[in-house]
Amino acid sequence: MERLQNIDRLSLNQITTDRLNMREAVECCVRAEVPWIALWRHKVAEAGVAESRRLVKDAGLRVSSLCRGGYFPAATAAERAARMDDNRRAVEEAAELGTDVLVLVCGPAPDRDIDYARKTVAESIAELVPFARSHGVKLGIEPLHPMYAAERSVINTLAQANSLAERFNKQDVGVVIDAFHVWWDPELYAQIERARGRILGYHVSDWIVPVPDLLMGRGMMGDGVIELRRMRKAVEAAGYDGPIEVEIFNRQVWDMDGDEALALIKERYLEHV
Amino acid sequence: MERLQNIDRLSLNQITTDRLNMREAVECCVRAEVPWIALWRHKVAEAGVAESRRLVKDAGLRVSSLCRGGYFPAATAAERAARMDDNRRAVEEAAELGTDVLVLVCGPAPDRDIDYARKTVAESIAELVPFARSHGVKLGIEPLHPMYAAERSVINTLAQANSLAERFNKQDVGVVIDAFHVWWDPELYAQIERARGRILGYHVSDWIVPVPDLLMGRGMMGDGVIELRRMRKAVEAAGYDGPIEVEIFNRQVWDMDGDEALALIKERYLEHV
Fold this sequence. Notes:
Shape of chain A: globular
Distance between the termini of chain A: 10 Å
CATH class of chain A: Alpha Beta
Oligomer: homodimer
Domain Xylose isomerase-like TIM barrel (chains A, B): 40-261
Number of helices of chain A: 11
CATH superfamily of chain A: Divalent-metal-dependent TIM barrel enzymes
Number of strands of chain A: 10
Strand content of chain A: 15-25%
Low-confidence stretches of chain A: none
GO molecular function (chains A, B): isomerase activity
Protein name (chains A, B): Sugar phosphate isomerase/epimerase
Number of domains of chain A: 1
Keywords (chains A, B): Isomerase
Order of helices and strands of chain A: EHEHHEHEHEHEHHEEEHEHH
Strand order of the largest sheet of chain A: 1-2-3-4-5-6-7-10
InterPro entries (chains A, B): IolE/XylAMocC-like, Xyl_isomerase-like_sf, Xyl_isomerase-like_TIM-brl
Mean pLDDT of chain A: 97
Largest sheet of chain A: 8 strands, parallel, barrel
């Protein structure tokens, strides 16, 4: 299958270089000529939204997405309302930072009732849509690997994310496909095709064998078993030609020098994605 | 929802008390008046098949299943043939031990080609069915949690296991539903109903938050977030009234005294399953 010919679509998801602050991450992208960056809210908060925007803009970078909104289900009405407030702030930040994609990590159930939590997620997205639309921001539902169902998100397959997204207009709500979360799914390729017109992002890393850690065990592309190129081609065949984020939670990668990490990412991106 | 009124259907899956040998596990069941036991092949091998059979039979225990056949995909034809040989031995052992259920943990791909591995699993089961039938043994496809897709099984949802089982006669091939592996699945209850007439086992443990370990992190029933009773009722509504295996991979449980472990299992089984 054909390789990517250049890094025009490569985006550094900021969590991949979590030890770098906003300025350092931006400078690494510039030196590596990586044209896109995906921002995380805790990093944006550190630098401030206005300063983050200035740093990114002055560097000529484009922002592929802001991570993350979501975490909708809560044990009390007050807590749920607080989380909706926080999601509205996330929408405002996305707009101010110049991206039209807010990634949603929808959150776990506060108790054993996963069905109710899923219902809450759907209602919360419906509530958030008009606000997001008015800010020019789309909501990207990212299904998370089932191993995170109890701790991070009750949305765990692309089929489920598609069903949820299809309740809304394509202009408002889509899906974000992260290879690490969905690679195992027997329905993957049918669901990628089903997502046509709603794919708001494609994220890459790899699944290492054996898995070293539930959260921090993602691998550099090429170090694991995911058919990254096949999936990228399928996402493209379904109409997505936007940025491809490299999002790796891995302490070894975090411990690398930023410039070395970017160099390795570029090499692996061209070789494996 | 209604509780189980007694422990008539309770089965000790032998991995739950992995530090006990065959004789010790059998004796613990007898003292606890647990009527069923599920055997693992490495334990059977330690004691010998004939001696295992004698111990179980003399104690008046019934064997709910033998774990496990499977691990079909292999890198070479020779290795694949060797695994088929081993599966035939597993069928023979199941028959000799007096159970009609051989649990299949289908195995990972030897490379990145998960589709091919899945095809191999289907072909291997087709090859094994006549042999198993002639021994009065049913093959129970157990979907494993997607986090084990790269290391233990490429069969990762109940939908997938149902589709695979449906290629065969109900008398020959069914599914084994383990709460730990499937609890997160948005399609779970529809797929349990779909499995009607093919459910060959129901296994319980719990999903602890946060997950302490990928393999050894299963919890005692009641210590986690799984709706075990709801799932048991659904499995019953789909026609299954057979043994319920308690299968817990957890070092703390392994470190317990056998009698204390069985006492706790009985208590939690009646309270939570």
